[in-house]
Predict the structure.
Amino acid sequence: MIASHPESSHVEPVETSQAERVRLLDNVNVLLEKRREAARAERARYFRPDASSPERYERSLATYREDLIALLGWPLNEPTPPISAEVTEIANDEMGRIQRVHVGTVAGLKAYGILFLPPGPGKHPLVIAQHGGHGSPELAAGFWPEAPSNYNGMITRLRERGAAVFAPQLIVWDRGQDPKFDQHHMDRKFRHLGGSRAAFDLCQLRDLFAWLVTHPEIDADRIGMTGLSYGGFYSLVFAALEPRIRVAVSSCFVNDRHRYDWEDWVWTGSAKRFLDGEIARMICPRPLFLEAGARDELFDAEGFGPVAGEVSAAYRALGRESAFESRLHPGGHEYDPDGRAGEFLLKWL
């Protein structure tokens, strides 16, 4: 039997405790804002690559790459496994050959993607074309013509111009697709173990890239990367970490990371070290194209301009203005509606 306890003889209105909660919440928000301002100053003191020349700038990024890997955590801090790949021919179409590829990655798992090669043999320039949320290589490639898509021929346009394209599958579909899972819940599982889901996906890209640069029909000195939304995130971060990426395009991702602080885009202490502007400046002085949609229904374009301005200043300081371009295209949350980003990629490849 559960013992009963008398209620307190003291009675007061509910609003009394509500006022205390309002005070506490207001004070914590003020505290966080102060800490955010302090983090901005700390980040500016921390991220200071050597801008005396493009060569010295590039060399000075090595320590920042190590720090970003440490921030992202396990399993990106594990060594690259020996290269192994299984390649299956899918089809030939009017633009060339199509292959499914499985490459060994962390803990014996297999990273998956689709490789599009031009019709004839040779050393071809390659673009890694990264799908976004609720996406897949097949959707980005137009394999499902009846399915709604905001990629605007991202892969097909490159293939029509004679480039090889590799489209990886990352863990960025959510509960709306099969198999059902919650990517943010998975991210929390990785965090419990000292890492992040982004680190796992970047491991997949790292190990796929290690195979791609050995491919006999790919020119390892002419590899670029592009992507939409989550693909824009991965294009930005992977190009920052991998200096052999010659040119990068990030579409509909770069923004104010305090406003769009999605779980898998924020890591412990990241505001003190790396937000979008710092990561983009780790691609400098290599060519970089950033875009946002003026009518983007997910990310307000207002947050894009200040970050793009930071990055532009870094290129200008090194005399590399021509290697950087940013723009607001007139569309929504969609990739390169007029082909300008694709032109930039192929120009620098």
The chain has a mean pLDDT of 95. The two ends are 78 Å apart (CA to CA). The longest helix spans residues 14-46. DSSP finds eleven helices and nine strands in the chain.
